[in-house]
Structure formats: structure tokens, C-alpha cells
Amino acid sequence: MESPASASAPYRLVRPPLRRVLIKLSGEALMGQQGYGIDPIVVRDVALQLKAVVSHHVATALVVGGGNIFRGLAASAKGMDRTTADNVGMLATVMNALTLQDALEKEGLSTRVQTAVEMSKVAEPYIRRRAIRHLEKGRVVIFAGGTGNPYFSTDTGAALRAAEIGADAVLKATKVNGVYSADPLKHPDAERYEVISYMDVIQQGLGVMDTTAISLCMENQIPIIVFKLEADNLERVIRGEPVGTLVGGN
């Protein structure tokens, strides 16, 4: 495993410039300290951070989870049919996407929501060429509904969309400032990595994203930057500063 000190040079090689990115936000990132639902103050703060990204002329796409409203896997574990539970979870991601769209447009940004679960009255269906065209026109594209299929996480959906639109990187916004050798909340002495390979993440089960998502990024050579969603970290990532952890390489 590469140590932070020995891997600083490769870390800089992938940045900048980042000209097209896929930002993965968890649904939990939108609920603040409430424990459930959507905190309007947090959503506005996220919108301001995204506005800063767009100001750097970076084509910006988003995938947002739905865990602040409904978690399909958790419901399935309690006896709900897994396919039904995942379908409900996909609808939760659409609710979050529409909320983010409203906040972004209040900040003067042009947006489109595309959903893998067709619902033409509130969002466009996901069409790859149309999504790319929106990005080329400077619109923020929010992908909702996961992949449109049960049994696939929104992390996998993010990796898939990143590959389809030709993103330079997946930016994974989390509650911790990078990838650690163990859960830093439970193990204060856990080591934070500046750089780690896809295979090390998979083999050590570090929980950055699920295995399918990591494998998709590895196969398509899409780096993943894991960072804490706070202050101006998102803009710092875009500027090429070594924030969080870079997942990439073999």
C-alpha cells in the first residue's frame, strides 16, 4: 500500500485541469443535523459550493443518494421485498435531485434533472447524448433514479454515469476527510491515505464505494477523489489542491 508521503507526486498528476466532473453526494449530506429529511440551510450551502465549481468553467454533473429519506437495503433487511425497497429508494433520489435543482437555480445556475426512472412531468429521461449536450452548454446535470434497476447502489450509478459522460474524475463528498485504514470515528489512530490504488480499496474492504463502482472506475481509468464536504473543499479539489484521498492506479 502506498503511504501518503511516497505517493504525493502521482496525486498531482491527475490535477488540474478537471474539465468535466461527476460529483457524488450522499442523501445524508442534505439532512444536516436533523437525522432525517432535507435541511434547507445545508442544501443552500451545497448549492453555493457547486456554484463555485461552475465558476471555474468545469462541466458539472451530480448523482445524489436517497438515504436521508429511504434506504432500500435497510428496508429489505427488515423484511421488505428488495426490488420494491430499491424502487422506493430510487424515488427518494429524485426528491433530492429536484430539491438540489431548485437551490441551484435560485443561485442563477441553469440545470437539468435526468432520471433513469421515467417520470416526464418532473424530469427528463436519462439520455446520454442529451446529458453531454447540456454539459457542453454549461448546465449542471443532476442524475437521479440510480441506474433504474434494483440491486445497484447510487455509487454504482455515479461510476456508470461518469464513464458514460467521459468525466475526468468522480468526486465523492463524504463526512470524513478521505480514505482511512479503518473507521476514524471508531479508531482514532487510523491512517489517512493521500493516494491508494483501486485494488487496495477492494482487497481491504475500505468502503469508499461498493465493489462494482470501484471496478467500473478502475476499468475506465476514472480517478475517485474522496473528501469531506465542508467549507470550500469542493472548490479546492477543482483547483487541484491535494484535498482528501485520491483513489486510482493499480
- Give the mean pLDDT: 91
Order of helices and strands: HEHEHHEEHEHEEEEHHEHE
Report the top-level CATH class: Alpha Beta
How many domains is the backbone divided into?
1
* Portion in beta strands: 15-25%
**Number of alpha- plus pi-helical segments:** 9
Describe the biggest sheet? 9 strands, mixed
In total, how many beta strands? 11
Radius of gyration: 17 Å
CATH topology grouping: Carbamate kinase
Unreliable runs: 1-13
Description:
This protein is of the alpha/beta class and 250 residues long. The chain has a single domain (17-247), classed as 3-Layer(aba) Sandwich (Carbamate kinase). It contains nine helices and eleven strands. The chain has a nine-stranded mixed beta sheet, with helices on both faces. It has a two-stranded antiparallel sheet with strand order 7-8. Strand 1 (20-25), helix 2 and strand 2 form a beta-alpha-beta unit. The radius of gyration is 17 Å and the shape is globular. It starts with 7 loop residues before the first helix and ends with a strand.
Please specify the SSE layout and strand pairing.
Blueprint: H1 8-13, E1 20-25, H2 40-55, E2 59-64, H3 72-77, H4 82-106, E3 111-115, E4 124-125, H5 128-136, E5 140-144, H6 154-165, E6 169-174, E7 179-180, E8 192-193, E9 195-196, H7 198-204, H8 211-219, E10 224-228, H9 233-239, E11 245-247
Parallel strand pairs: 1-2, 1-6, 2-5, 3-4, 3-5, 6-10, 9-11
Antiparallel strand pairs: 7-8, 10-11
Helix pairs in contact: 2-4, 2-9, 6-8, 7-8
Task: Please name the defining characteristics of this protein.
alpha/beta; Carbamate kinase; 9-stranded mixed beta sheet; 11 strands; 18% strand
